[in-house]
Protein 1
Amino acid sequence: MHAGECATSHDTTSSSTIGTVTPPYHMVNIGSEVTITCWSYEPAEWYFKDSLLKSSLKINFINNVLVIKMISISDEGMYECFGTYENNRVFFIGSALFVKSESIQW
C-alpha cells in the first residue's frame, strides 16, 4: 500500500488497493458543492458509510468524479471509490469530507 491508503470493510479479501483519490480530504461550508475525483479504471462505484451511492438531485457522477451539492452536516465522512481492473474488484483510496459549522472557526 502507498501512504494514505487503507483497507475497508468491502470484501477486502478479493479487493486490492491501487490508484488515488484527489484530494484526500475536503473542508467545505454547509450549502456548498464539492467534487471528488477518483483516478481509477472505469466503471467506478462510490460508497459512503458502507452504502453504494446512487445519482439523485444531490449526488451526480461525471465519469469517475463524484459531485455532491448542497452540503450538510450529514454528508461528513469518508467517501470511497471502487472499480474493476483485470476482472478484479479494486479499492481506490478514499477522501474525507469535513463540514464547517458556523459555530466553529477554522
Note: Strands lie at 15-17, 20-22, 25-29, 34-39, 45-48, 51-52, 59-62, 65-68, 77-85, 88-100.
Protein 2
Amino acid sequence: MTQEKYFNRQIQLWGERTQKSLQHKKIAIIGDIKNSRVASSNIELLPRFGLDLFLVAPKKFKMPSKFKTTKSIKKIIDKVDIIMSLRVQHERHKNNLTQEQLQKNIKMK
C-alpha cells in the first residue's frame, strides 16, 4: 500500500468514526488565511466531514473563497462551535509589518 493510499484510508476511518459528531458543526478559521498552508488544507478537508466554515481575517490576510467570510470575529463568535486560530506568517509577507502595525491591522472590530 502506498503512503498516499494509507493516508487516505486513515482519513476515511477517522471520518467514519467522527463524522456524526462533526456533522453541521460550525468552525471559524481566524488569522492569516491567505498565507497559511494549515488553513488551505483545512478549507479543503473540513467540509468533507460535514463542518460549516467561516473565514475571519482582515483584508490583507483573506483569500478568495466560496465560504462565508468576515473581518470581524464579533460577527460570528456566537455562531460557531469551534475556533481555529492561525499565526501570522511573517516569513511569507513581502513587507514585514512591525508589531504595532499588525495590531492596528488586526484590531478586533
Note: The longest strand covers residues 26-30.
Protein 3
Amino acid sequence: MMARDETHSEVDVTETSLTYRAILAQAKDGITVTFPEWPEAITCGHDIADALFHARDCLAEAIADRMRRGESFPDFVEPEPGQHLVAVDPEDVLTLADPADGGEHGEGEPSDPK
C-alpha cells in the first residue's frame, strides 16, 4: 500500500481504506453530515439512515475531486464517541474521478443535440 500523504498518482485507492469520521447534527429540516477530515464534504438527510446514505455519495465525490486535482488524502482518525464511520467503495471513487467514464464533474464527451 502506498502512503496516503502522497498525491493521488502515488495512492492506489483500491489498496487504501476509504473510511472516515462523520458528524451528524440535528438541523431544522433533518440531519446534517460533515466530515472533520474532509471539510468540503457536507450533506444532509431526512433522518439518520437517509443522512448516512447520502454521506457515502458525498464522501466519494470529495475523494474523487481531490484525486482529479492530485491532492493528498487525510489519514484515518479513530471516531470519537457519537461520531460515525462512513466507508466508500474505491471503485465508485475511481469511476467518479475519471471524466472519460462519465464522472460527476467530468461528464465525458458532450452529447450531440440533434
Note: The chain is about 25% helix and 25% strand.
Protein 4
Amino acid sequence: MKSICLGVWNRERKPRKLMNRVAGNPDAFDSLRKAWRVYAENAKEARRLSKISIPRDVFEGLEAVRKSNLTNMLDRPMVAKLAAEMGFFETTEWLMDHRKEYAEGIFRGFEVDEEA
C-alpha cells in the first residue's frame, strides 16, 4: 500500500521522512524530555528561591518604609515618595530605575549586596 498525501493544490506527493535522529528512538525522546523537565524545574526553583541583591542604603530605606506601616509595599510610587520624605533619596532613585527588580523582590525577598 502506498501512502500519499494531498497537498494544498490537490497534487499527490509522498510524505516527508523525519530527519530527526530522536524520532526513530522513542526511548531517547522520553529521556531527553525528562532531562529537560528536570532542568527546567530546577532552574525555575532556583530563580524562585533566589533573592534580589540591592545596595545597603537602598535596603535600609525600604526597611524604614516597611516598618513605618504607612503604605502597602506593593504601591511602588508611594513607597518611593515615603522614602524621599524620610531622607532615603538613594532608595527613591533605585525604585524609579529598577521597577522589575523591585516587583520581583517583593515576592522573592531582598538581600544586601555588600559589593555595591
Note: The chain has a mean pLDDT of 80.
